[in-house]
């Protein structure tokens, strides 16, 4: 005979087996998010990697440790620029935009005119410091109501920090738009991954971050030719769909990248800070472990990580741990063809310099195509 259980709040009987089954279902815990992997041995001081599709953290190696970030700061420079300028707005290059020898540069010419889109390409593909300063000065002049270049750039930096606060990047602070080492500038691998996620959601910026090379003519009367290759040495490899590099004496080798995995079903963002980096006496890079670290992490995650099904609610790194969502400016452009779905010393000398050392050669001018494996990236 079937057993019955009477409820004190009801005059109807419920079958005991059904009630027991209901209690068991309610008592079962929700499926827990996968635990992060123990990261393989790398030289990086900090690593954070997460699956965009699920929000699950794959690696967390001192991901909340504040560190210098080098030219990864230029990601925010690009975002703040697009908060205030359209892609076709024009900028006249000024003397104040020039950078000293050894800085990452596109050798922009004073008086030349470039569009915001062209300058952003310079900022994100070869990581040009002069392009970043030109945009910061131009936008900052409006924000600060000043024609003084230094004051304008300071106003722009204030906007960078306000944007970071708005995105909930509590462990990030900027002191300049190019990523030069400064005691008042820092970020974490965790925050950099989140920042890159925001940039990847903008179609224009995502297309630039995916480019392996670029070339264009300025819109000034002389129509100067600018061009070169990306600092991203993993472009088109291992599923990498976009990346931004950074390096300084304090930051070491840094890179943040996006890649597709699990046969294209999942997208991963990996932030690497403080990888082994060394230069010879001429300033040419002779050791750069960030790419080895990136390959090691990618190979390991593909071998050991259990890919989860995409979650509609997972839009931020660590979403499974209730991370606050990051807001984003809607893109005002359709994706370009290149887009995919997805110390106080010198700032980085990324790709552009004139050098002949260790068998590596770079020849550069305002109208030359450039490739340099040495220098700071």
From TrEMBL:
<keyword id="KW-0645">Protease</keyword>
<feature type="domain" description="Peptidase S11 D-alanyl-D-alanine carboxypeptidase A N-terminal">
    <location>
        <begin position="38"/>
        <end position="274"/>
    </location>
</feature>
<protein>
    <submittedName>
        <fullName>D-alanyl-D-alanine carboxypeptidase</fullName>
        <ecNumber>3.4.16.4</ecNumber>
    </submittedName>
</protein>
<dbReference type="GO" id="GO:0006508">
    <property type="term" value="P:proteolysis"/>
</dbReference>
<feature type="transmembrane region" description="Helical">
    <location>
        <begin position="352"/>
        <end position="372"/>
    </location>
</feature>
<keyword id="KW-0472">Membrane</keyword>
<dbReference type="Pfam" id="PF00768">
    <property type="entry name" value="Peptidase_S11"/>
</dbReference>
<feature type="region of interest" description="Disordered">
    <location>
        <begin position="308"/>
        <end position="346"/>
    </location>
</feature>
<keyword id="KW-0121">Carboxypeptidase</keyword>
<dbReference type="InterPro" id="IPR001967">
    <property type="entry name" value="Peptidase_S11_N"/>
</dbReference>
<dbReference type="GO" id="GO:0009002">
    <property type="term" value="F:serine-type D-Ala-D-Ala carboxypeptidase activity"/>
</dbReference>
<keyword id="KW-1133">Transmembrane helix</keyword>
<keyword id="KW-0812">Transmembrane</keyword>
<keyword id="KW-0378">Hydrolase</keyword>
<dbReference type="InterPro" id="IPR012338">
    <property type="entry name" value="Beta-lactam/transpept-like"/>
</dbReference>
């Amino acid at each position: 005979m079937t057993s019955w259980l009477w409820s004190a709040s009801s005059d109807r009987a419920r079958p005991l087996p059904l009630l027991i089954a209901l209690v068991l279902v309610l008592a079962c815990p929700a499926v827990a998010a996968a635990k992060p992997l123990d990261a393989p041995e790398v030289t990086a001081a900090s690593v954070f990697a997460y699956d965009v599709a699920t929000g699950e953290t794959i690696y967390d190696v001192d991901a909340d440790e504040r560190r210098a970030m080098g030219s990864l700061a230029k990601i925010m420079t690009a975002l703040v620029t697009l908060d205030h300028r359209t892609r076709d707005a024009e900028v006249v290059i000024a003397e104040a935009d020039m950078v000293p020898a050894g800085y990452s540069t596109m050798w922009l010419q004073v008086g030349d005119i470039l569009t915001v889109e062209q300058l952003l390409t310079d900022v994100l593909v070869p990581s040009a410091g002069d392009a970043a300063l030109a945009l910061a000065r131009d936008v900052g002049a409006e924000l600060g109501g000043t024609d003084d270049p230094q004051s304008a750039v300071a106003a722009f930096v204030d906007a960078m920090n306000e944007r970071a606060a708005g995105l909930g990047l509590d462990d990030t602070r900027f002191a300049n738009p190019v990523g030069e080492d400064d005691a008042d500038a820092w970020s974490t691998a965790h925050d950099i991954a989140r920042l890159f996620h925001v940039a990847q959601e903008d179609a224009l910026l995502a297309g630039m971050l995916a480019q392996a090379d670029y070339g264009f003519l300025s819109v000034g009367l002389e129509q100067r030719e600018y061009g070169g290759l990306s600092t991203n040495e993993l472009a088109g490899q291992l599923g990498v769909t976009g990346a931004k590099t950074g390096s300084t004496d304090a930051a070491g080798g840094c890179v943040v990248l996006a890649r597709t995995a699990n046969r294209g079903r999942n997208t991963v963002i990996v932030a690497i800070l403080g990888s082994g980096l060394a230069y010879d006496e001429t300033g040419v890079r002779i050791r750069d472990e960030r790419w080895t670290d990136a390959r090691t992490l990618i190979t390991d995650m593909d071998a050991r990580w259990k890919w989860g099904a995409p979650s509609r609610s997972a839009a931020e790194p660590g979403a499974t741990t209730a991370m606050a969502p990051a807001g984003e400016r809607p893109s005002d452009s359709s994706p370009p063809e290149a887009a995919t779905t997805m110390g106080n010393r010198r700032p980085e000398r990324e790709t552009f310099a004139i050098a002949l050392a260790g068998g590596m050669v770079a020849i550069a001018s305002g109208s030359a195509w450039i490739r340099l494996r040495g220098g700071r990236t």
